[in-house]
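Q: For a teaching session next week I want to show students how multiple molecules come together into a single three-dimensional assembly. I've collected the sequence lines for a complex. Could you give me the predicted structure tokens for the whole thing so I can convert them for display?
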Amino acid sequence: MSKSVRAADIEVGYTLPEVTHGPVERVNLALFAAYSGDHNPIHLDDEQARANGLPGAIVHGMLSMAYLAQVLTGWVPQSQIRSFGSRFAAMAYPGDTVRCKGVVNAKDTVNGETVVEITLTAENQKGDGLLSGSAKVVLT
Amino acid sequence: MIGKVYEPFTMDVEKGRLCSFAKAIGETNPIYFNEAAAVKAGYRSIPAPPTFPFVAAMEAEQPFVLLADMGIDKRKTVHGEQQFTYLKPIVAGDVLTGQQKVVEMYDKKGGALTFIVTETRLTNQLNEAVCDMRTVIVVRNG
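A: Of course. Below is the structure for the complete assembly, covering every listed component.
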């Protein structure tokens, strides 16, 4: 966060700075498996992924979601995030790039605080949607 | 099954684990790695990134506890949706306790898919509610 975000400057339609990660490498999946506690082999082993009907190892949905959260944490202090959620729309694969975007779709005053609602999306390098999310953030 | 509450689980939020997790997700903000930077930013210690609460559930294998209880093969499931509501910061040194509850179950596509919705509230060692999680697991039937 180079400069602080002020409520008065943010209106509906404002586009948050994008965050892009990738290409996601297998070592990223191994590290995420270790530190997230999700050791499911479908993220680490092509053979086991194929045995479960997948074309190969897939990126953890929660890793893509952690990238998506950085649209928020890169924009305002994390303590201003009130809620964050996402639907897992499609799978990402090793070698994919995860491009994360956010846009303000509502701005309200709740109990004297300015709360903005943000529509969040993540897509791969082909523009296919991976995640479809939203968040509520307090602005000061 | 709706309304069923599972045994409580706990997680010690270790500083090293938080730093390793932050590195694994590509975070670069010093508050996730350096205690002095975190304290300067107003946290008691290094904060847990926004999706870390799910790690507490995952570490305690909560999705698998649920599926085993329901007799569902975990290989036929995918994580459909994840929601977090943040109540207080989670920081290094915290001890989190949670309890998973089944709140909703419904079929789609003529029974080809079953959606299981759970909610888990995480509480810290000060008995403060810190985060509410809502998880949707999708089961491919047949």
